[in-house]
């Protein structure tokens, strides 16, 4: 059977949704003492999801039919988009439709790279605040707010890019498909079981 290579599969889509819900859950439970255990659970779910995404980046080309974009690929896309926006010969052209589109693409890819880098810092500082030194709470909140700013940048540039493309580009990360290789679907199911089991027992601790 011939493989149809892509950079998005069902596992990546599920991870994207889990990361999105994990961020929302962690952010809005952060200041509620009664939901502190839930807040910590969301933080660990984020860390599990990012770890799984990194592992899948290296594993999927060998066992599945996808070649996910990594930090290097997205950084190159962002750099090329910036170069394209700066290639215009005069100041007026920088504010042209094509230039703004290129800048938006660059910021979109940059936001993804920075989100992946900031999540482990936020979770690590959250753990250190809880178990090592409570004085790290302000630093934890600073990076949590930085994370929020990056998410907002991600969403805004997604909307702007969708306007330029005249179609909602985020649909590719939300539309579930079951045409992937069996190993990919098994990995997605395994991930859901791991996160579900972890969340259940963590909240019962």
From TrEMBL:
| Membrane protein topology class | Multi-pass membrane protein
Q: Which organism is it from?
A: Acinetobacter oleivorans
Compartment list: Cell membrane
Please provide the record's keywords in A-Z order: Cell membrane, Membrane, Transmembrane, Transmembrane helix
Q: What is this protein called?
A: Cytochrome b/b6 domain-containing protein
Name the Gene3D superfamilies for this protein.
Transmembrane di-heme cytochromes, Chain C (1.20.950.20)
Q: Name one Pfam family in it.
A: Ni_hydr_CYTB
Bilayer-crossing residues are 12-29, 41-59, 100-122, 142-165, 186-203
